[in-house]
Amino acid sequence: MKQLESETVTRTAAALLALSVALLAACNPQRGQRLEDIPTPASFEALQQAATAEMMTQNAPPPGFRESVSFAEVDARLTELPGWRYIVTLGFDGAFTADGQPTSATARAEVWFNQLGSARRVLVEVTGELIGTEDDMAFEAVRLGPDAFLVRGDTCLNGGPDAASAADLRAGRLVGGVLKAVPTGRRATLNGLEAWEYSFSAQDLNLPSVRLEPGGRISAASGELWVAPAHNAVVRFYVNLNVENAVIFDRELPVSGQVILRYDLHDVGTAANIAVPFGC
Fold first, then answer.
1. pLDDT tens by residue, 230-262
2. Cβ contact 221:71 at 8 Å
């Protein structure tokens, strides 16, 4: 998409340049017949840079968000909002580095929040070997003030460290975030919020679930970060990584392949109705 926008800007600049030359020739039919009449060819790169600068100025984020932003954890500062819901996914597809045996896994969490009720609801689904088990797993956890509940299968656990940890699960601890990102000049309405896009490099990423072993590396990375300044919140965080010799979720055996991170924030301002889970 960015390449298409860049090519469109270049073609537009070229068309405007050609139109200007044609208008000058129409005003002076003799112009261009002498060598000194022919202008120095314009730099298309300079025209493109000027057009890009104008676009970024017109679509600049509000003050405080124009230079750069930092969200080391994508869900940072969300507790300052009255309510919301987000969906976060971490997926891996590749192979064990040592023997090349294929492996894949996905962890998905959906989280609701109600600030007034000091309440959270968490639904988690895990498939594959992402957390060191071959069995698929699903659970629901709820926090209501100081009380925490955990439901897995037909069993409800009322209180205790496991219930508390599950109910307090956060996207930032799953997919991390970005240490520094700069605006691209693109603005859009995403998930009902006015948001601006920011770019970042692989070195700017905070990836708590991905640890490189000696000799390991991130060979390729692409992604996008969208921020809603009105709420000081990340609306969307998408990243694709190609990793080599990396440990995912502290698993004992390193892997190589593609890591996919997805995060979307929804229903900002809506306080979810959260109650004790069924069966507790």
1. 999 999 999 999 999 999 877 778 999 999 999
2. no
- Three-state SS for 161? helix
Return the bridge partners of 187, or none: 196
Bridge-based pairing state of the strands 233-248 and 255-266: antiparallel
pLDDT tens readout for residues 42-84 = 333 443 344 344 445 567 899 999 999 999 999 999 999 999 9
DSSP 52-97: HHHHHHHTPPPTTSSS-EEESSTTTTGGGSSEEEEEEEEEEEEEET
Q: Cα separation of 186 and 190, whole Å?
A: 12
Residue 60 token pair: 């600049």
Cβ atoms 269, 82 nearer than 8 A: yes
Closest C-alpha to 189, from 226, 243, 225 = 226
